[in-house]
């Protein structure tokens, strides 16, 4: 620390003020660094999860496009085309939210390995299944369940920005509806 015993009068008083000011700055700067680190790590967690959801929506969009090609039933084609458009819109919404948080949304592009594997499994199951529509609906249900879980995990993050919370709640509500519709359609085809 500082030795000011040799200083007298005004110089000593000025030096004490300087030392106190330096100490105050050190303490407050440490607090500021701690606060910024906490905010940044929360922001990083949110961005990581948003990028995961973006990829998940790419997976779903691509999966529904593949299902449209494989389905003969016009009613199911129409439903799946609606989900293709919905997931595309979700992706754009999430890209906008990532940009609002100061990150480049173009970093996360394309589908995931897990999504690619799931689509390959859907193709294999379609080939060996006697009821193509029912098999595809079951795989769509499974994919929706994974997406539903990912959205739940995102909504459980602490300090989620209000705009992000509102956006994800809206998406999740629509995923809930899609999941319900797919389960209804699946039960219709099982009969």
Describe the structure in brief.
By secondary structure, the chain is mostly helical.
Describe the structure.
- This protein is an all-alpha fold and 191 residues long.
- The longest helix is centred in the first third of the chain and has 62 residues, at 9-70.
- It contains five helices and no strands.
- α2 (74-100) runs antiparallel to α5 and α3 packs antiparallel against α4 (132-155).
- 83% of the residues lie in helices and 0% in strands.
- The protein has helices at 9-70, 74-100, 113-128, 132-155, 162-190.
- It has a single domain, classed as Ferritin.
Remind me, CATH topology? Answer: Ferritin
- Which class of secondary structure composition applies to the elements? mainly alpha
Our Rg estimate from Cα atoms comes to 27 Å
- Multimerization state: single chain
Shape: elongated
Number of strands: 0
Q: First CA to last CA: what distance? A: 83 Å
Identify the CATH homologous superfamily.
Ferritin, core subunit, four-helix bundle
Mean pLDDT across all residues, rounded? Answer: 78
User: Which stretches of 5+ consecutive residues score pLDDT under 50?
Assistant: none
Specify the helix fraction band: over 70%
Number of domains: 1
Taking the sheet with the most strands, its summary is: none
H-E order: HHHHH
How many helical stretches?
A: 5
> What proportion strand?
under 5%
The CATH class designation is Mainly Alpha
CATH architecture: Up-down Bundle
């Amino acid at each position: 620390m500082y030795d000011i015993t040799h200083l007298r009068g005004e110089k000593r008083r000025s030096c004490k003020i300087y030392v106190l000011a330096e100490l105050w700055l050190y303490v407050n700067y440490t607090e500021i660094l701690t606060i910024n680190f906490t905010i940044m790590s929360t922001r990083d967690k949110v961005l990581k999860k948003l990028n995961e959801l973006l990829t998940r929506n790419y997976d779903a969009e691509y999966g529904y496009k593949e299902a449209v090609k494989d389905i003969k039933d016009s009613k199911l084609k129409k439903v799946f085309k609606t989900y293709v458009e919905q997931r595309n819109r979700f992706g754009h919404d999430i890209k906008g939210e990532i940009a609002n948080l100061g990150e480049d949304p173009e970093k996360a592009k394309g589908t995931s390995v897990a999504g690619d594997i799931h689509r390959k499994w859907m193709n294999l199951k379609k080939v060996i299944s006697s009821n193509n529509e029912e098999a595809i609906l079951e795989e769509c249900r499974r994919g929706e369940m994974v997406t539903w879980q990912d959205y739940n995990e995102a909504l459980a993050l602490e300090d989620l920005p209000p705009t992000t919370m509102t956006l994800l709640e809206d998406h999740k509500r629509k995923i809930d509806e899609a999941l319900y519709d797919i389960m209804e359609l699946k039960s219709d085809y099982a009969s």
